[in-house]
Structures are given as C-alpha cells and as structure tokens.
Design goal:
The chain has two domains: 61 residues, no CATH class; 94 residues, no CATH class. Helix content is 42%, strand content 2%. The chain has five helices and two strands; from the N terminus they run αββαααα. The chain has a two-stranded antiparallel ribbon. The longest helix has 27 residues.
Length: 189
C-alpha cells in the first residue's frame, strides 16, 4: 500500500500574536464606541453644540459632588434612579409613608426614592438596629432617641419613625430623592 502524505498546516511564529493583537484592538474599539455612545445618548446627557467644544477640551464629566452640574456644555447624571414601586398595601409602614409623602406635596417619584432608601437602610423594619453605629428604626436615626422629638413611642411606632424620618429628609436634603442621591454617592444619608 502506498504511503499517504498528509499535509499539515504550519503556522508562522507571528500569526498567533498578530491575531491576539487584532482581537484586543477590536475589543478596545468596540468598548470605546459603546462608552461614547452611552455617554452621548445616556440618561441626563445633553449634546453640546459643536461650537461649544473647543480643541483640547474633550468630554468633561462634571462635578462628582454635584452630578447634575454642567461643565463644557455637558450634563452628566451618574446617579441611578430609584426603581418604580406600586401603591403599597394598606396598613403597612410603606402605606403610611406614601400618604405622608403626598401630604408633603411631593409626587410619587419621591415616594419611589424613599422606598429605595429605606429598603437599603432598614427594610422598613421598625425595630432595625445597627449594632455597630447605634442607628435605629425605619429611617435609621443616629442615635435612635433623636426620634423622640416626633413621639415618645419612637422605638415601636412606624408613624412616629416615618414622621421623624421625613422631617429629617426635608430639612437636610429637601426631598427623598435628594436623600437617595446622597446615599447613592456616599453610601449613607
């Protein structure tokens, strides 16, 4: 039987590194285009007139302490919005807060921010206690006895805690969404 000759493809020593380099460059190009696309089309982004961007200016991300601040014609919001929530079940702490938020004259988006904020802080547990800081209750007042200014039953009554918490938020951040934005940036409010 005649011997069969099997041809074998031999790669040159430069083919694998070249291929890897091309793939890497393609990945970087796609990533860069995605970042630019999300920046220019993302929530809160505003396109600047071509005449307002000067050579060497580039894209400015604004002030990290004030995410709505504009610089170089761009406004960038990096803060996640609070997830949408429905109308709460009657008789729950969230239902109490819903009515109080509307009584403040705030709209439902403020309620959504409050739900997200207090889900993070206490999961709406009237007895939530942070042993490392001493924060207590639904709004995680620090120290907890600050809530006594809203009622002597501050340790057990969700109405008292929510009343105090909304007053604190209104006085310090203006609105629940203001407190949520601060919490997103800093991890606390």
């Amino acid at each position: 039987m005649p011997e069969q000759i099997v041809e074998r493809h031999v790669r040159s020593s430069w083919s694998l590194p070249s291929f890897a380099s091309i793939v890497t460059l393609a990945f970087l190009a796609v990533s860069s285009l995605s970042a630019v696309s999300s920046f220019t089309q993302g929530e809160g982004a505003q396109a600047a007139p071509a005449s307002s961007v000067q050579p060497g200016q580039g894209f400015a991300l604004g002030d990290p302490e004030n995410p709505g601040a504009a610089r170089d014609g761009f406004s960038v919001s990096r803060i996640r919005t609070a997830p949408a929530v429905g109308v709460p079940d009657a008789g729950t702490a969230q239902a109490i807060a819903y009515d109080m938020v509307l009584a403040y004259g705030w709209d439902e988006s403020e309620y959504e921010c409050l739900v997200a904020l207090w889900n993070r802080e206490s999961r709406w547990n009237v007895y939530a206690n942070n042993p490392s800081s001493g924060a207590y209750g639904i709004p995680q007042a620090l120290p907890g006895d600050k809530m006594a200014s809203a009622g002597a039953d501050w340790q057990t009554n969700p109405v008292t805690q929510i009343t105090w918490g909304l007053g604190y938020i209104a006085g310090r951040y203006g609105t629940p969404c203001g407190a949520w934005e601060h919490s997103e940036r800093r991890g606390w409010y």
